[in-house]
Amino acid sequence: MSDYTVGIWMYQNGGGDIIEKKIVNKLRERDIKAITNLNLRYATAENGHIICNGVVMEDLDLFFSYNAGGQTQYQVYLYEVLDQYIPIINNFKSFSITEDKFKTIHLLKRNNIPTTEYFLCHRDDTKKLKTIFEKWNSKMIYKPVDGWGGIGLALIENESSLDMLLPFLNQMDLRCFYVEKFVNYDKSDYRVDIVDGEFIACYGRKAPENDWKTNVTSGGSVILREPNEEVIELAKKAAKITGLEIAGVDIIYDLDKERYIVLEVNGIPAFATPEQEKMGLNFNDKKIDAIVNLIEKKVKGKK
């Protein structure tokens, strides 16, 4: 009988169910029991315990949360509380930072990681947005600080397009306006997977013709791509600074400044889907082994 028990909540679409089974089996081989389907959306809390599907979450040796599309405010709320009592991958502090584009890029900039220029202001300070537009003398991108998959991004090409966008944004319940200076790049990026500080794999995404967004959910396509050492080391540094145990670092090449820059750091980078595996993305087993090693290190180091 295992002395260690971990909880798992993992996405099931796109081959996630297969990945989960492999993780569970490999953990079992190391005498670590895994309880799956621990969706905090259905959890309750009373008398000092968070209970999910009959499991007292604080009694687990670790909770592995890996489901990007299903996070709700309630789940994140319990995630934060649970993180105070048991190890969670990814840890809540780093997860919460990388869920916010401004917090991520601000942290990277303060640690001398090359990123794009950015600007944040209160939603009522629209005059400052126009000032920064004039200062940059460049196109800029409006981004929701907590969006993902390219949803809600808007390219601001001139002051007229900014004037057209602002009334729409003012109708939304926003606390701030966040923009980034548009980077001249070849409309492709690097997604670099890092687990426990080690390079796992890299692939690329390419924007569709006549567009600039590489996100697959926005019409971008996945491409095979080999990173050089500079890209790998930059991804490792970004992951380390954010504190993520598992990270997917998005990097592009700035053609004007002739350097690689980090655009985002993701706390739940997807595994390759079965279709992507057929096209040559074969890093899933390596990533699974690295995650299982990480879980084992954390739970067996705990007792």
What structural keywords apply?
D-amino Acid Aminotransferase, Chain A, domain 1; 4-stranded parallel sheet; 303 residues; Dna Ligase, domain 1; globular; Rossmann fold; 16 strands
Overview in brief:
This protein has 303 residues and is an alpha+beta fold.
Helix content: 25-40%
What is the strand content? 25-35%
CATH class of the largest domain: Alpha Beta
What is the number of independent domains?
3
Tell me the Rg in angstroms. Answer: 20 Å
Detailed description of the structure:
By secondary structure, this protein is α+β, with helices and mostly antiparallel strands. It folds into three domains: 4-89, Rossmann fold; 117-181, Dna Ligase, domain 1, CATH 3.30.1490; 185-290, 2-Layer Sandwich (D-amino Acid Aminotransferase, Chain A, domain 1). Helices cover 33% and strands 27% of the residues. It has helices at residues 16-29, 73-82, 92-98, 101-110, 126-136, 159-170, 229-242, 274-278, 284-300, and strands at 4-10, 32-35, 44-46, 49-52, 55-56, 62-66, 88-89, 118-122, 140-142, 154-156, 176-181, 188-195, 198-206, 221-224, 246-254, 259-266. The strands form four sheets. Strands 14-13-12-15-16 form a five-stranded antiparallel beta sheet. A four-stranded parallel beta sheet has the order 2-1-6-7, covered by helices on one side. A four-stranded antiparallel beta sheet has the order 8-11-9-10, covered by helices on one side. The radius of gyration is 20 Å and the shape is globular.
